[in-house]
Amino acid sequence: MAAYIEFVPLRNARCSMPSWEEFSDPLSFIGRIRPIAEKTGICKIPPPKDWAAALCLRCQKLLLHPSGTAPQLEAMTRVKLDFLDQLGKFWELQGSALRIPVVDGKLLGVYALSKVGVQGQVVLQINNIRISILQCLLRQD
């Protein structure tokens, strides 16, 4: 059996309350109290009572508007990843590697572009039909 080690209770951590002068130069204050704080391993340094942080967020007024619920966002991510996987496999079968284009230093959203292409395909088909009708009419002359 392993030998038991005698339990030594921890000492209370020191709470150093700096004055305004000490608080204006925190690194020198920490350097001064360091030998005392090293004995316990931790030291609490609360700011002066009338001190206010330069950036203070009011959590009660902070409202976050999520773009969707977690399952919806996860589902869209899965759809995009599946699309990119299928696209990569397609180009691999063609004997070429998939390279996603970079526009203005950012990767092009290939999935979003494909959706725009599918929606625009109807317009392209209509325009192609019009062009083919015009070509047929011109050939008859």
From TrEMBL:
Alphabetical list of PANTHER family matching this protein: LYSINE-SPECIFIC DEMETHYLASE, LYSINE-SPECIFIC DEMETHYLASE 5A
Alphabetically ordered keywords of this record: Chromatin regulator
Database matches in Pfam families: JmjN
Single GO term (MF): DNA binding
GO terms for biological process, alphabetical: chromatin organization
Gene3D superfamilies xrefs: Cupin (2.60.120.650)
Keyword Membrane annotated: no
Organism: Xenopus tropicalis (Western clawed frog)
Domain called JmjN: residue spans: 13-54
Keyword set includes Cell wall biogenesis/degradation: no
Listed name of the protein: JmjN domain-containing protein
Signal peptide segment: none
Top-level taxon of the source organism: Eukaryota
